Structures are given as C-alpha cells and as structure tokens.
Records
---
Amino acid sequence: MKLFSAPVSPFVRKAVLAVHELGLNDKVEIVKGDYNDESSDLFKCSPIGKIPAMAAPDGINLCDSQLIVAYLDAQSDQAELLPASGSARWEALASEALADGLMDAGVDVMREVRRPEGTISSEIEQKFRDRAVAVLDRFEQEAASYGDEFHVGRISLLCALDYFSFRFADMEWQKGRPNLVAWHAKFTDRASAKATHPATWTL
Ligand SMILES: N[C@@H](CCC(=O)N[C@@H](CS)C(=O)NCC(=O)O)C(=O)O
C-alpha cells in the first residue's frame, strides 16, 4: 500500500498515526504526495489531489483520511480504531468528523493568510478562526466524559489539537479548556503520537 503524504498536514498525521497504532509500518509505504503537480503520482491515485490518499491492492484508490483509517483498521488485528457497531461506532465517527472540521478550519485559515498580499481577507480568516473556537468549545464540553479509549475520533482530535499548537500558538486552545488539556496530556506521550508529531515528523 502506498500512502501519499506530506509533513505537518493533520489529515496525513491521522493516517500515519493509525499505521503505527495498527502495526502496519511494514505494509504501508509512505511517499510524498505533490498536490501542486497534476502530473504526479498523487493525482494518478486521486484526481482530487489532496493528501492523504492511498493506493491499496486490487486497484482500490482511497482519497480521504476517514476512509483510509477505516481501511487500515480492517487490515489489522493489532487494535480496533473504529468500533465495529452500535453507539460506540457512531460516537467515534461523529467525533472524528468534528475533529476533522477543526482541522479544516485551520487549513482554511492557512490558505487565506497565504494568499497574495492585498487579496487576503481578514473577515474570512476571522470566520474560520471563530469556527475553530466553536469546535474547541464543543470538545471542551465533551472531553469531560472521555475515557481512555483511543479510537478514530480521539486520534483525529489529538492531531487537530497538535496542529493548532503548531500553526496557531497565538490561539492558545488550552486557555479556559481544562478538560481538553487533561485529555490531551493522557495521550501526548503515546509512541504513535510522538513518532508523528508535526514539529518533528518528516518524510
Ligand atoms: N477531507 C480530507 C481533507 C484533506 C486535506 O484538506 N488535505 C490538505 C492538506 S492538510 C490538502 O491536500 N491540500 C492541498 C490542496 O487542497 O490543494 C481528508 O480528510 O483527507
């Protein structure tokens, strides 16, 4: 399996972290995905041109981090990142989608501030920053009831929080969110989290 990736992307980190959790390092080749070059192998795998994307056996091309993690989970007996059924499954998926939304808001802010000078909209930047704050506040409420499970939803949340620390230290997501800080502290030293941290992970 070939996983198209790039450093810092929180969506890529989610997939790579899952590879570690599931013990699939020998089965997944992590390669650079160049989303600026439409003739690159990334686009042959996924014409959407976003990372992560994964070329799996039997010509199956997977082009979204949720799908990639679900696929990887099905290839491993080492752990279960996506609960098989019932409310646990839907809670995990709902939490993953919410955390992905937090990542999206961060990526949207970065896209806006990287536009050419004179075309950057501070309103648009602020809109996505406000969205991120609203999602962080929702997670602060929910984190009070989180246990020790480390499923797709929690993996996505960890990746989103570390991405915000890395890109938007000024936002201080930790401020006024003690439940989230306590939850984050429980998982930040996990081997898979340390091996994939945005400050150090490279291809
Ligand atoms: N919903 C997608 C989002 C992936 C995404 O937004 N990736 C960004 C990098 S963080 C990307 O490829 N951007 C390049 C582009 O949009 O051209 C997922 O979960 O995989």
---
Amino acid sequence: MSPLLVAAVTVGCSPFDPDLGPQPFFCADREPRCPDDYVCVERVGGDNVCLSQGVVADAGGDANLQCSGDTLEPNDTIETATMVGIPASSDSQMFDGVVCPKEDLDIYRLAVDVTGESVRAEVNYDSAAGPLVVELLNSTGISIRTGTPTNNNPDKLRADFANLAEGVYYGRVKGMGSLNNYAITFVVTSGALPP
Ligand SMILES: [Ca+2]
Ligand SMILES: [Ca+2]
C-alpha cells in the first residue's frame, strides 16, 4: 500500500473524529437530541436542527438562529423561574432543558409544603460536551447545595437536601462556558430520597 493511500484510509476511517460537519440536521425527539459538540436550536420557520457548538457560538447576532430549543425560556431569574408542580400522584417531575447561550441560567421554582420534606435536583447530561453545574437555592437565591456526580458517573449530578423547612426553593443549572442539553428531575418527598 502506498503511503498516500495509507494516509487517506487513516483520515477517512478514524473512529475518533466526531466532526459531522457544519451542515444542520434535524434533532432527535428525545435526549440526547444531538451528538456531542452539537446543540439543538430552533430555526425561524419552526424546525429544530443540530448545529455544531462553534456555529452557534458565532451566531450571536444572527436573527435566524435562536437558542430556543429550550421551550422553558425565559427562566434566567428567580422571578421568571420555571414552575415545578410535582403531581400528587408522583414525587417527581422531569424537564428537558438546554444551556444556550453559554451565559444561560435555568432556574426552577419548587415548594416544600411541609417542614421535614427532602428535595433532590438531578441532572442527566453528556458531560463530554461541557460540564454543567446544578444547585439548590434557598428562597432568596442563595446556593445551599451543589450537585455532585452520582456513583462516580459524571453524567448524573445530584443535589440532595434532606429535612428542609417549609418554603420556596429553587434549582439552578448553568454551564461552565459551553452549551449543553440536559434533563433535570426534581424530587420532593416526605420519605427518604431514592437511592
Ligand atoms: Ca435554558
Ligand atoms: Ca435560561
């Protein structure tokens, strides 16, 4: 085999090259909606496409591109927080979120109805696309717990707080300078938090 042919085969078949190119392609219906290093965005006209993070980051002033794959926006402040309404039939509620743009904050409001209940905010995501931080905040927006990897799994972060006083609390998700999709599940229970 000639050296030229070896080089061509090596480049063409590398399993370690995640670059799928800059052309948009449709997002999946479920998480993860896009491959690593791509983010799902809504285009004017209404379809949702995966774009490379580099393209999205460079498109801040482009009116044709919105970070609106996250239908929960705006939720960047405790005043505009996404409401968590845990159904009576269940102790938990899940949301699909997107950190986009990089400075995005996603804040969720939940209530502890009875002193002594325990709360969990669990984020599942692909940490390889960029780390996320999940926190529980008190009623004034002060962080009272930061999520940590669960069972050494960096893609599953949990912020647990047992025996909280009755009142309003918030969950907050933010990135560390990158865009990412995630799923967040809130648990409010009078019993023990599930393992
Ligand atoms: Ca968001
Ligand atoms: Ca937000």
